[in-house]
Amino acid sequence: MSILELTAVELGKKIKDKEITVVEATKAALEQIKAVESDVHGYVSYDEESALKRAEEVQKGIDDGTYTGPLAGVPMAIKDNICTKGYTTTCSSKILENFVPTYSAQAVENLIKEGVVFLGKTNMDEFAMGSTTETSAYGVTKNPWDLDKVPGGSSGGSAAAVAANECFMALGSDTGGSIRQPASYCGVTGIKPTYGTVSRYGLIAYGSSLDQIGPLAKDVTDCATLLEAIASHDEKDSTSVRLESYDFTSALKDDVKGMKIGIPKDYLGDGLDPEVKSAILAAADELKKKDAVVEEFDLGLVEYAIPAYYVIACAEASSNLARFDGVKYGYRTKEYTDLHNMYKKSRSEGFGPEVKRRIMLGSFVLSSGYYDAYYLKALRVKALIKKAFDDAFAKYDVILGPAAPTTAPKLGESLSDPIQMYLGDIYTISVNLAGLPGISLPCGMDKKGLPIGLQLIGDCFKEKNIIRAAYSFEKTRELKRSTIAEEYSNKNAADTNKSAGAQ
Fold first, then answer.
1. What is the pLDDT of residue 420?
2. Residue 70 above 80 pLDDT?
3. Based on the number of CB atoms within 10 Å of its own CB, is 368 exposed (0-12), middle (13-18) or buried (19 or more)?
4. Which member of 93, 158, 173, 178 is catalytic?
5. Average pLDDT score over residue span 469-490
6. What are the boundaries of each domain within the chain?
7. Which of 104, 131, 154, 240 is catalytic?
8. Is 238 a catalytic residue?
9. What values do phi and psi take at 148, rounded to 5?
10. Is 289 a catalytic residue?
11. Which of 132, 262, 444, 496 could be disulfide-bonded to 279 (CB atoms 3.0-4.6 Å)?
């Protein structure tokens, strides 16, 4: 087995046992990036020199006992809307093309203490606004299972990089499904934690009441371990919640006996691809075989989630993105007549079409005469959605359903029809509106050979329930590699055999 085929936790153990060095693992990931980036484009930027320097430092820290955690020495990637001190953070937007933060996000600081190695920043939909990673100012990311398909978004670069073996794990952010949907499309695992579990300090905001940083990795064990590393109370984030325990890995048990799992009937209706539906129900049957109690129920309000979400998210985006004006940092237009003209031209030239669309929508719903009709109404719907979930969790431990209505669509299809793109998040958005935790993990393939994602939703701060259910289901399947990962693994094996033969 090559280094790249290992999971993050497996690699961490081999590094600890001195079977693999941190430099060897980092070089393997960097070689894979160089080999596949021209096809996949999972990264906005990566820095070979600083990654190898960090690898040497971490190795010394492991040898002298500074770093003892399960992820020490593991190379990983970070979504490009999460601040990294001294390293460009662009949100995949022209307007932040030259922005170098003077501090790191709290989640990144937590990982530095764990001794991980950062490879680079992953591509994303501009300012996390999109579901396909096609709105990036720095080019389109492609799905490692099929290069004609989208990887999902907005954390498409992180999901694609993990699926293509360009890193062992990655950080993403989830505002309306931006971790879980790309995880579903790329055949990897991703967790959106409960709102307040991971500090938002250093995450460049899209929708402040919805955003959460979370892990993307090859399997449930890696995701739980990475979540454990990044979760913490942070006084710098007013929405950060102090939890009694940040232990998530103890939930990695193959035991769902007596667990009550509800499947919303609303999630199995119109718009759901038949192949996705059958894979989701087959996954539910597997959990039933392990003595979980599985039944369908009426959740309600699903049809109102998307309009409520896009009103709230766009309203918050129009406020959050007002700071990008070309004055203190970021892109500034070269030719302008006065200050007002400079603002206008900088923002017109710096933002892409999807970001402009959402800023305009947000400004509209917050404007005088429309505030009550749209924004306040959306907030009331949000409260009703939270109540519907509260009622459901009074009866069930976990809610099970699809992560996305279809498998990955073709490149270009969604951009030509934004409404269709928005509908791609129909099963994930409610989780953000209610502040709940959710996990997406592979549960099958369609006839085109594309992964299908299973979504498990838990009650607030009950991540352990979804991790336990996900882990139990994962034990019923084999980990499958993407086409790109498979192709390059076979090529590397052939090269190794050839050089061994030559000797």
1. 74
2. yes
3. exposed
4. 178
5. 92
6. 3-251+436-502
7. 154
8. no
9. -90, -5
10. no
11. 444
